[in-house]
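Allow me, if you will, to draw on your knowledge of protein folds for a short while. I am sending you one protein, given as its amino acid sequence and as whole-number tokens for its backbone shapes. Kindly check, if you would, that the fold set down in the tokens agrees with what the sequence suggests. The record follows directly beneath this note:
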Amino acid sequence: MPTNTLFQYSGIAALRKALAERHTSATELAQDALANLKAQAHLNAFLHVDDDLTLAQARAADARIAAGSATALTGIPIAHKDNFVTQGWRTTAASRMLADYVSPFDATVVQKLGQAGAVSLGKLNCDEFGMGSYSENSAFGPVRNPWDTDAVPGGSSGGSAAAVAAGLAAATTATDTGGSVRQPSALCGVSGIKPTYGTVSRFGIIAYGSSLDQAGIIARSAGDLMEVLDTISGFDPRDATSLETCDGAPNAPGRIRADYAAAAQSFDAAGAKPLLGLRIGVPREFFDAGLDAEVAHAIETALQTLESLGAVRVDISLPLTRLSIPAYYVIAPAEASSNLSRYDGVRYGHRAAQYGDLESMTGRSRAEGFGVEVKRRIIVGTYVLSHGYYDAYYLQAQRVRRMIANDFRKALSESCDIILGPVAPHTAKRIGEDRDDPTAAWLSDIYTLGVSLAGLPAMSIPCGFSNAGKPLPIGMQLIGNYFNEGRLLAVADRFQQHTDWHQRKPGQY
């Protein structure tokens, strides 16, 4: 196996320094990364790689560095989840429906990272159309967890998390509809953040649940997340859900970095107790009988670390936590049913080879193009939107959604500054373990769904490992108030300055 160059550097800042001081070049980093991802093809993290496209971007990055016009991300190897449309690379959303689709334009997130000089290594595997918790639902085979290749990496952004964990990319784009950034980050032992809904453009992201989908980032550390998230955030007039301002401040690059720096400065000024006075809300509903004992122990140990840094633990309640599952699995499938109706075999996407009339062409094309989980959610979504059931299911779910958001708002405004808990009830399961019980995977999202329904920012950072069998990562979830991404990342960074969980690498536990 080729040398994993990315593992030789502590993160994006170290890579940037090495590039600036000519210890390496963007082209050399790209070549090493391409060789390494091919050597680890068994992980099935990548769906499309094009060496020529990647090396062309790397050479352009080297030219920018030589000219003195480099940005914070120039020359940094990244990769994109396969539901971000891209020019040159195929965009399939891990579905047979879009198996050969190449977009004529880039998603806004892809465009911004390209303009910053980041070097794309290709497209990453995921659950089909983002529908899944384990990255097993891809039409092109499951992604494998680098810590244990018989285990799932989490979903739907499993390829994004696996690529970072295996050292195949310095950072990756991802999307989070109900936990799809946070859960794979937790199960793969890396860091990931979902920002406040509307702060990052959704233009060019293949839609699943439009009121829930949000672009996010996965990387090794909170500091790396800040570097990339700050670059991609900002108002986009092409996205109807994009926000112009964030609590009075312009939604633009620099906002998150400034908030992060301000929080870090205040932590530095506090000396040996950098988090002095920080109120951490611990929801009692997150620590019920369904939480694995090893996960609970790791979260408790992490809490004690934060308390040693000056933070104060506050017991809080989020009483509607259990209702987040039925509310989400009514709203998200309903929106998916609407969004996926465009794949009819007429305009683009898969078309059946044999059919009689227009109706049979559409039916056959959709039956052949969509996988089982996607069909399941389309059927559920169509049902809850149908006449006679809309009020009973969809409208009621939206009411519950508002009540869940209000619970979070009340806690964050009256009781605590951030909320802390587990990401998933368990460590990574075996591939295929829940195949006969599809709703079991839905239940694993219980700690992440409420945040997505409320549109709040949240992140996962590594905080421990299981002890039985092969060590598997455990992630801790941090939830902030609206637009508090910078402070949330600064708290995570302070935790990572005093722990080394995020520095552990597969095979080097």
